[in-house]
Amino acid sequence: MTDPLSITRRYFLGHCTGLSLGAMSAGGLLNDNVNAQAPARNETGGLIGLPHHEVKAKRVIYLTQSGGPSQIELYDHKPDMQKWAGKDLPDEIRQGQRLTTMTAGKAQLVMPSHAKFRQWGESGATVSEWLPHIGAVADDLCFIKSMHSEYINHAPAMTFMMTGSQIPGRPSLGAWASYGLGSPNRDLPDYVVLVSKMQRPSDQPLYNYYWGNGFLPSRYQGVKFRNASEPVLYLEDPDGLPREMRRKLIDGIGKLNSIKSRQSGDPEIEARTKQFEMAYRMQASVPELTDLSDEPEEVFNLYGPDSRRPGSYAANCILARRLAERGVRFTQLFHPDWDHHSRLSTWCVARCRDTDQATAALIIDLKRRGLLEDTLVVWGGEFGRGVAGQGNWNTPSAGRDHHPRCFTYWMAGGGVKAGYTHGATDDFSYNVAEGHVHVHDLQATILHMLGIHHEQLTYRYQGRDFRLTDVHGKVVNEIIS
Fold it and tell me: What are the residue ranges in the chain where pLDDT is below 50?
């Protein structure tokens, strides 16, 4: 029998009921949350009942270009802009668009594209000559030139793109995919994040909540692989700890956690146990995955000279293909420094040089291995760039400010139409003219390709059923093959 004098406050509050109406109400919310967090699962760890419909893509590789790539220099060719060079952007085009503090109150003088364009392939897609390798695979790509968002600053816009809300704390797209579908690979995380190791210091932060689990159990968050000899911290056993002893430790902790989980009903305990198990298996799977020594010379030549540099975008593209081969559900690459407020003609070219060959190589490599048909590749950033020059528009020092009202994304594989362009912007690449695709529409479409109905994948939290697209979003059926 428990000694009444030894009962702690934690024990008392955890085992007594009827303390107050507030406690009873909180208990109801907590019970809702527990019930929502412990649904039935299938053999791959996915929810019973998923997929909801035909699966177009078994996995996603999201090539996130952080900073706001300029659609005007890369994909959205506007030759008539030349006659407006140095002139004020017409008020009927701007329509009161909010500007950042960097350009608000300053003259909005039109700056034509610094890049030349050409048509590529049988589809005739217009792609900048700064991206010759991507242009060469244009017939495999599906361009969306009518993306738009509401948020004009980096962190809110990227948070919105990744989680469906500008406020941190919601689950990311990859976490939703992991929660809904699980992964056929038991030895690697469902959701892996790879961040480029830049050759110069990056001044653009990438926050962990971009790939976070939000209010979902923590096992669904993205696992970031470091650009170091130890890709995942604390994965290796300490010196002198035999692997069989590690196995016994995990088994013992699992039994204790199981007892505590039954007592408290806290789903995070089960999530932590599964993370211990995953870490144990990753001790063998991660070194094998990240060791590129078994890749033939031809592969490094395909992805370009930077592919031999560990942590580079090109090397991460090879890792993305290897993760796809191993059945990982969601792989996300982040390549920063597309934020070109100045020296756009220099720095944008440099970012194209970082990414162009490796991006195209990934498409080619997946296709020749038979993986592209059921892998959805997504390319894009949080917003685009404005038509007005920032700084002296007619000098090499000029750049462009943020612009969420229209920008370009593209997809490949995974059930999208190849060699197809959806949507269009006005003559200034300032407003969407046709085929509007909102961020929530993009998110709904990506989930649709995975076999998920975005309105049906929900999670009860604090008494409300949340979903990635909130109360918005529609699938862009026009791009689906």
Answer: 1, 20-30, 34-37
Q: How far is CA 412 from the centre of its chain?
A: 15
Flag whether 260 is in a domain: no
- Among 316, 335, 59, smallest CA distance to 189 is for 59
Range of the domain at 54: 38-240+281-479
CATH number at 143 reads 3.40.720
pLDDT tens per residue across span 291-313: 999 999 999 999 999 999 999 99
- What is residue 16's predicted lDDT score, i.e. its pLDDT? 58
Q: Report if residue 195 sits inside a domain.
A: yes
Angle at 449 between CA 446 and CA 453, to 5 degrees: 80
pLDDT in the model for residue 36: 44
Signed CA dihedral, 39, 414, 302, 309: sign only: negative
Q: What is the pTM of this model?
A: 0.90
CB atoms within 10 A of CB 339: 23
| Structural domains of the chain, count | 1
In a domain, 201, yes or no: yes
Q: Are 189 and 477 in contact (CB under 8 A)?
A: no
Would 248 be classed as within a structural domain? no
